[in-house]
Amino acid sequence: MREIEHRHLRYAIAAADLGSFRQTATKFNIRQSAISRRIRDLENQLGATLFDRTTSGVVPTAVGRAFLERARASLEQLNEAADIVAESGRGMLRIGFDASCGASFVTALLGRFVSRHRRTHPVLVEAAVQDLLAGIRARRLDVALLTGRPEVPDCNVIQLWLDRVVAVLPESNSLARKETIHWRDLMDMSFLGGKCDVGTVIHQCLTRESSDIGYDPQVEHFAVGRDMLIGMVSLGKGFSLTMQSMPECRCAGVVYRPIFAPGAELPFNAVTSDLNDTQTLRSFLRMAFLARTSMGH
Predict the structure, then answer these.
(1) What are phi and psi of 259, to 5 degrees?
(2) Would you place residue 49 in the very low, low, confident or very high pLDDT band (cuts 50, 70, 90)?
């Protein structure tokens, strides 16, 4: 069987939606006889009747409905693929990130990228991890930058580097005099968690590693941002955690100490879809991978 022409499928789908060859001809600005002939050619090619013709219009047959349902899905996928290529040609790059990687890091990385790819039009989206992964699957996003170990079997997870967990401590605490600390050193202090995703990711890390050493951490969650949380640490209310790649929040009365212990490193990943592969995206991923050098990894 020779290859089916896409325009014939479009005519048939429109006829099914409108219930009329005449209205279909009007939609495509061609003669009704041409629509009727093209759909008849399609039926002959398939060896099946797609429409019942009546004086009041046309109605898909049972086999016609089954065929047109699949044809419609195929054309939608083709249109989506064409949109991706068109966006690639325009230099569109849709980047999602969660709070764990830090807006300042994304801005710095994007600044370097745009300076070398001046035709790129970036679109930034900060969202929760699950929303970002849904955006990758639906191809609303080209890449998501995430800290942690996301379970996304239907996507590409590209590890860019390992990011170390850092403890944020009150300057008055005895641990502030140590250059590095262990999870066990934090057993007598309360963990202060904020409202952003970095708290969720690090809280999971803290819970996992504390369980391994038989330690049940005291956890206090506050509906505040990172700056306010660091301020609460400076008051001696407890400790917090951040990632080494995130810029230190300048606040009097706090110190940052890396944790050198098993489980104190989390992968920093770029997540993409197998169905989305453009030159713009590949160039961005190469630069993101090379950025680990400037981040000290």
Answers:
(1) -100, 115
(2) very high
CA 139 to chain centre: 8
Which pLDDT score is estimated for 12?
94
Angstrom CA distances, 252 to 224, 233, 234, 284, stand at 19, 10, 7, 37
Query: What gap in Å lies between CA 120 and CA 143, rounded to an integer?
Result: 14
pLDDT on residue 85 = 58
Q: Give the per-residue SS3 of the chain.
A: CCCCCHHHHHHHHHHHHHCCHHHHHHHHCCCHHHHHHHHHHHHHHHCCCCEEEECCEEEECHHHHHHHHHHHHHHHHHHHHHHHHHHHHHCEEEEEECHHHCHHHHHHHHHHHHHHCCCCEEEEEECCHHHHHHHHHCCCCCEEEEECCCCCCCCEEEEEEEEEEEEEEECCCHHHHCCCECHHHHCCCEEEECCCHHHHHHHHHHHHHHHHCCCCCEEEECCCCHHHHHHHHHCCCCEEEEECCCCCCCCCCEEEEEECCCCCEEEEEEEECCCCCCHHHHHHHHHHHHHHHHCCC
CA angle 123, 127, 128 (to 5 degrees): 150
Hey, what are 11's tokens?
Answer: 């005519």
Query: Could you tell me which of 185, 216, 219 has the C-alpha nearest to residue 200?
Result: 219
More confident residue, 75 or 202: 75
**Pairing mode of beta strands 265-272, 143-147:** antiparallel
Contact 267, 162 (CB under 8 A): yes
Residue type, 202: I
Can you say whether residue 263 is alpha, beta or left, with left for phi > 0 and alpha for psi between -120 and 50 degrees?
Answer: left
Query: How many Cβ atoms are within 10 Å of 137's Cβ, its own excluded?
Result: 15
